[in-house]
Queue: 3 jobs
Job 1
Amino acid sequence: MTNKPKKRKFIVEEHESIDECLERMSKEGYFPVRRMEQPIFKEEIQNGMVEHVPCGRTIVFEGKLL
């Protein structure tokens, strides 16, 4: 029996493309079932008020064990 979890999240790293992340998933025995994008915000002070300004995104794939 395997010790791998049935579901696992894979984050697309800064230095890799989406295809490279999917290939990494495949090598570990997972196939993608869901893609999620999470925004990244930074705080900026404008006119004495703190505003949250989007500055990027993180792409996360949910993988299911083959």
Job 2
Amino acid sequence: MNASRCRVLIVDDSAVVRQMLTEILSGDPAIEVVGAAADPLLAREKIKRLNPDVITLDVEMPRMDGLAFLENLMRLHPLPVVMISSLTERGADATLQALSLGAVDFVSKPRLDVARGLQDYAEEIIAKVKAAAHARVRPLARTSAPAVALSSSAPAPALRFRTTDRLIAIGASAGGTEALRVVLEQMPADAPAIVMTQHIPAGFSHAFAERLDRHSAMAVREAGDGEAILPGHAYLPPGGKHLRVIRDGARWRCRIDDGPAVNRHKPAVDVLFRSVAANAGANAIGAILTGMGDDGARGLLEIAQAGAPTLVQDEASSVVWGMPGSAVRLGAAREIVPLERIATRLLELTNSAH
């Protein structure tokens, strides 16, 4: 990124959205909107001419598929991209695919009264564009396109488990939809139970859970209130609600919490982690993956103080090293692990945990 201001190119077929995003982003002294384009064909020329640091890109555009444009961009001229997506089922699927193609993050826009809705998200839009400017963007390899389903011949870790009385808790944000997929793809069907929180809008959670389920030998689902937490299963909070773990005799159950946002997030990683520290204690393992901000750092510290192993994703493999870095600075992380090693390390810690 340029030393002065973050240079942003806005790509959206809606003139109203282009104007609103320009006003919102230009209102921050650290951001300069260098141009806007109504479709990817125009955007391609402006990228060459204006050399932006960050692109905001509409997921659904009528004149050219935004995903096809993104895929070509990440192969030929990788740049940090923040997707602007609609809160619809189709928009959710397209956004998750965009993240798998290398987009850093996304902002959802409402279906009605877009101008006012975007203004309500002004702070989030500015923060995500700034974070994207510092994100690690890698060229897209052809083999990294999302698979439709987990191959039955895919190798699984050879580790086995002596007991099932373990609970893995994972938190993530920006870049986390793909990081969680990488971790869950490496987990065997008999892995210990996993509870997760990923910062994601309510309308996207169901599609996200389904996508993870397709990529994992574990059963991945949105958690139901009071549902028993079982080995071989991974649980996500349903849209716009916190997930907590409660103890019910000798077992754990999911508690769905519709309380206020924590650290400006709902679901919040800290809510999950603190419940895990209180109810699973030393039987837990806590992990923070890539993400913006500091949500989860204090909760991970509580997990560590309860006697459980803790780890975070390393900076080199993180899209944004905000949440993991905050946990390290707080002294909450006992290990720093590259993304491709996290699943194996979680399984090793599961076997060695007392």
Job 3
Amino acid sequence: MKPVASARLQAVRIGKIYQNAVPTRVGPPSGYGALLKRWLFEKAEREPQKPLGPFRADVAALAAPVPATALRATWLGHSSMLLEIDGRRILTDPVWSERVSPSQLVGPKRFFAPPLALDKLPKLDAVVLSHDHYDHLDPAAIRVLGRTGVPFFCPLGVGAHLRRWGMPAASITELSWWESARLGDDFALVATPARHFSGRGLTSNNTLWASWCLLGPTHKVFFGGDSGPFEEGFRQIGEAYGPFDLTMLEIGAADPEWADIHMGPDHALTAHRLLGGGPLLPLHWGTFNLAFHAWRQPVQRLLEAAGPEVPLLLPAPGQRVDVAAGPLNSQWWER
């Protein structure tokens, strides 16, 4: 691994509140009244007009042993990704519930059913969590996964949620930015900076948020979680641990009203270039209505802006991708 620069960015904690490493505005500059008017009156197709799917992952194929030099990815929707990397299986930000909300009666609802049932998941080596927002941390999924004995890796403070939901403390590893944990002798998980915020219910920023570097003996993967534009942060991560064989970055739920905390497609491409390395597999789009843009807009803009120099992996939900096979455009959102 390359050494991390001494001036690396750090999250700041003042009292019980975590702060970003650079000035970051979370609230909308136009105010929440203006957001409500947009929500009520703007006409973008924020949800599919026709049902999507059903999508089905190949349960038998996913259950087979993971080769020691494999790098495969199965997108399960939003930021939930099942990775097969160098003999391990790692699941990111598992969300299986119908709605991403404090209540399953109201709130953003799935566009399609999960392509793989929770009880059909293969045996996992780790679950990696980026932060505690409802669309990234699903207590129903956590409780099911916890019964399997899988270890959880999360940013500082997020472990309190897991313990409250019945996870044993011994199965939880909490890390600050630039701290690492081991999966065996030859595999490391490193929590790295992101520019975002946290909170469930009435609390905000009592827990940390993070991106992650998954560093195997053969392959390296970057999982961005949620982040706004953050050039110095991504540059430092790329210099420390890149280039990556696969980068996974958010492209959806972006808007000028929260320009500091979500990237959108164009800033995701900038981040990808700063991180260095192989193909970009976009996350955080096409699953829930969390913004004002049309639901297809993030991927359409990504395709326009990427150009031939950025290989894209755009699988359908549940479609298993062998990263070494090269770029993929399933166009599932057009069917």
